[in-house]
Amino acid sequence: MNEIKYIVIGGSAGSFKIITEILKSLPKQFPLTLILVLHRLKHIKEGFTEALRIKSQLPVSEPFDKEKILAGHVYIAPANYHLYIEPDKTFSLSAEETVNHSRPSIDITLSSAAFSLRNKMSGIILSGANNDGAEGLKDVVRYGGTALVQDPEEAAVATMPESAIKLSETENILSSQDIISYILNIP
Question: pLDDT per residue over 154-163, tens digit each?
Fold first, then answer.
């Protein structure tokens, strides 16, 4: 029986297209939780979540501090906040210094999720222009989760997937369509 209940996806430059494809593919009764950590403009608070909500049959929202994580929901890390996953299955928000020039940091969310969720989570790194997510994906592997990376050959910007592959040593390198198939076949 598959243990995975949570999917944490990190992306930056060039990842919006695959994110919208993933959201469009999920059925209304999808039982898992998706947590998206996407690099975005810090000072623009409106529009991003709404643009993703249009593509999804599932509820899409930015979590509040100490909010309980619900199944069948899509969460997006708020602009200019780090998003932690706590062992009690709640979110914590932080305005700490940037990590890899980013806030939200994919590394912070993946590492905290890996520690808190262990083999109940998958971490996925998509297209992006820096190294954010590589350390976090390494933690996903270390704590027994499943690590996947978008094929750098297909990614609009290969830096983030290449860094994640190198550091995490994952062999799960998939095309965007294979990532979507993987997500749909977990439940």
Answer: 999 999 999 9
Residue given tokens 């997500």 in the structure block: 183
Q: Is 12 designated active site?
A: yes
Give the architecture (CATH level 2) of 6-184. 3-Layer(aba) Sandwich (3.40)
The catalytic residue among 56, 107, 132, 139 is 132
Whose structure tokens read 């810090």?
Answer: 42
Q: Which helix (H) or strand (E) holds 23?
A: helix 16-25
**Is the Cα dihedral 111, 126, 44, 99 positive or negative?**
positive
Query: Mean pLDDT across the stretch 41-50?
Result: 72
Dump pLDDT digits (tens) for 91-109: 999 999 999 889 999 999 9
